[in-house]
From TrEMBL:
GO biological process, one term: proteolysis
InterPro entries named in the record: Pept_C14_caspase
Region (Disordered) residue spans: 1-26, 247-266
Name of the protein in its database record: Peptidase C14 caspase domain-containing protein
Native species: Penicillium thymicola
Length: 405
């Protein structure tokens, strides 16, 4: 029997639609950065502190009676919202609804208006679990049943990420557990509030439904448990770091067993430079006398194994200034420069970083994802291992015995 954790992903749709253009992860256009601007933006991210939300509300969306077992995922997510003291409501899309998009948009606008009227800093969590499909080049929430109307992400996105006018005191965290979820992470303008998306998979992948195997929602739940009882709050960047660490570890196991790899979750900050911080409702910390039964993230969490390419305008002088500038960044933003090359008008730099660093950097920098590394460069000479040598008779001083200390 195949371990469900290591099974190949399946879903309601068997292959990525050909109408969707092929892009690398993340799905943003490459950008040449100017050093002074990049330095200033990275410093802003480093100095930014997560906002404290006075009001926190979540809307948990699924299709009623679909075949993905999304109901279980919504229950799991509701339990997580309770952990973070976030008021939540379940929103069921009915297959008989002739205007599901309009009704969902109306409810989102009502929640947003309620938050605006408080005139305080608020957090809205939008969560969807179920089937996803690419229709007319865009992500749609679908029921998987005939005769139902799909809900286009492009129609409800403006209600969550409004730009005219900008509700500056409302941060938005979107979590999508569906096929092709990464198609929702494309583009975003720079405004003062923070809006982020955590997606179960890229724009070209199928997500694992709860009905058949471990869903993305369940993986989020497991990741949160590793922090619960160890600290009083959790940033979305640290959460994503743990989710990706577990995903990378799982992928390595799948390759060793010759199994197809499961979807890779992605995260994108559409606007803002302040991380979204989720405060645990129960702030009781585990003591040495009463340790948590679930181990907290190990030192491997901070391993720098995400290789990216950064393109910088300028030449060698700008590269030297860049290396000096990144030395002053906080630990969660530390990177290793592995190589750099000069072109006619710019330089591109290869950086190794942790997933948390990646999530922080991509708030302001355009990083081209290269891959996950497993150890140092193969071109660098490897140090010889030190072999302990026992002191035999020829190495002892006269009169010294083997037991002499």
């Amino acid at each position: 029997m195949v371990d469900p954790e290591l099974s190949s992903p399946t879903g309601s749709i068997q292959s990525a639609p050909s109408s969707l253009p092929t892009t690398s992860f993340p799905s943003t256009a490459r950008q040449v950065h100017q050093l002074p601007v990049l330095k200033e933006q990275l410093q802003k991210v480093a100095l930014a502190r997560a906002n404290y939300h006075v009001r926190k509300v979540a809307i948990l969306v699924r299709w009623l009676s679909d075949n993905s077992n999304a109901e279980d995922d919504v229950t799991t997510m509701a339990n997580l919202m309770e952990d973070f003291d976030i008021q939540h409501e379940s929103y069921n899309i009915r297959k008989t609804d002739m205007r599901p998009t309009w009704r969902l948009s109306q409810r989102i606008r009502e929640i947003t208006l309620e938050c605006e009227q408080t005139e305080q800093h608020c957090l809205i969590v939008f969560y969807y679990a179920g089937h996803g499909d690419i229709i007319d080049g865009g992500l749609n929430f679908v029921s998987g049943m005939p005769g139902t109307h799909p809900v286009p992400w492009s129609k409800i996105k403006p209600d969550l990420f409004a730009e005219e006018p900008v509700p500056e005191k409302i941060d938005v965290l979107t979590i999508l557990d569906c096929c092709y979820a990464g198609a929702a992470t494309r583009s975003g303008s720079q405004v003062s509030r923070t809006t982020q998306i955590i997606a179960a998979c890229s724009a070209h992948q199928l997500a694992n439904p709860r009905a058949q195997k471990t869903s993305f929602t369940l993986r989020i739940f497991r990741a949160v448990q590793k922090f619960k009882g160890q600290q009083t709050s959790l940033t979305t960047t640290a959460l994503f770091q743990e989710i990706r660490r577990e995903a990378d570890q799982r992928e390595e196991q799948q390759r060793e067993r010759g199994l197809p790899t499961t979807p890779k979750p992605i995260m994108e900050t559409l606007t803002g430079i302040q991380p979204i911080k989720l405060h645990f409702k129960d702030t009781t910390m585990s003591s040495s006398s009463s340790p948590s039964r679930i181990p907290h993230p190990s030192r491997k969490v901070q391993e720098k194994n995400v290789l990216v390419k950064l393109t910088l305008q300028g030449h060698r002088r700008e590269f030297e200034v860049f290396k000096k500038a990144i030395e002053d960044l906080p630990d969660i933003m530390k990177v290793d420069v592995t190589d750099a090359y000069k072109t006619t008008q710019s330089i591109f730099i290869l950086l190794n970083m942790s997933w948390e660093s990646w999530a922080m950097w991509t708030m302001v920098a355009d990083l081209e994802f290269v891959g996950i590394t497993c150890g140092p460069s193969l071109l660098q000479p490897q140090p010889l291992a030190e072999i302990p040598i026992r002191a035999f008779g020829e190495n002892r001083r006269p009169g010294e015995t083997e037991n002499t200390k």
